[in-house]
């Protein structure tokens, strides 16, 4: 995939974030009960295996809460929760103290983590590894439950517990996969809409430029005809001839422009196209235009700034939250032009832009910098956001 068409995953990221936050609330509640049971069983278990395992489990649960609510990255902690649960299950047969007689209906404390780890796997790993883990954990529990260290339960009891865990976790995983699929479809539709808006802005700018050239040619031809009509001596007829020659050259130039994409586009054409495209992306957008001159900019610059502007407006609509004012400032100057996308939404910290926010990193920052432009962010949490795009002739 080309970098200038970065994958947008707004809906998918928001869904994953919501699932992680929900899971981070449920896990400590179940984990607290699990650890209470673990401590109550500690005298029956090998301390050299029990305490490191219980401590690691506690760290993974607390880390998950920290990762979700503070660092906005819970993948490491989800993986840790899964791996620790699997290690405790594998070492459980040697985790019971030597010669220790277990009470009737003994339920190993790690039972509470089996279902949690199976569910966590869908957020920690890709689909196929997660599927294997969802099957592996109940199977491990099935065999452990029938050992003396696991409580010495019968075949059918062990099968019932394992089946219950598998159905519970696999149902949740299937639900998550379905939701992710639908979110990905929404993202794909939004991606196509954004690409269509960028292409429409580019075509609009080219058409406006062609119209401007046609108008100039029309004025040149009209002037030539007027001079020729009023020519009364040889000097005036020579002037009319020179004007006619220049008009023919402009007509040929206009013909070439109609057949090819112009190398340069005027600031006024670019601003008009951006106004139309940005207004379609955000219906509540207020546009301010200053200095829309006939000064020309390279077509690749116009294309880059079109994508960056539309992406920034789209980001404002998706991420800014409730806003009362959203504005687009287009300002031309003798040296170049500036585009400012401003809102009074929730704001953000530019230094903490997630790596998966490709819409900001690729479609805005990289696209503008590649053509010699600059990008600035004026934003703070709760104070709104201004995205400033600048381009000046070197």
Concise account of the structure shown:
The protein folds into two domains: 3-188, no CATH class; 263-394, Histidine kinase-like ATPase, C-terminal domain (Heat Shock Protein 90, 2-Layer Sandwich). The chain is 65% helix and 10% strand.
List its salient traits.
394 residues; alpha+beta; Heat Shock Protein 90; 2 domains; five-stranded mixed β-sheet; two-stranded antiparallel ribbon; 10 helices
Q: Catalogue the unreliable spans.
A: 1-7, 257-261
- Estimate the strand proportion: 5-15%
Count of distinct strands? 7
**Termini gap:** 31 Å
Widest sheet, order of strands: 2-4-5-7-6
Number of domains: 2
Rg over C-alpha atoms, rounded to the nearest angstrom = 33 Å
Average the pLDDT over all residues and give the rounded result: 80
Count of DSSP-assigned helices = 10
Largest sheet: 5 strands, mixed
Structural classification: alpha+beta
The amount of helix comes to 55-70%
- SSE order: HHHHHHHEHEEHEEHEE
C-alpha geometry:
elongated
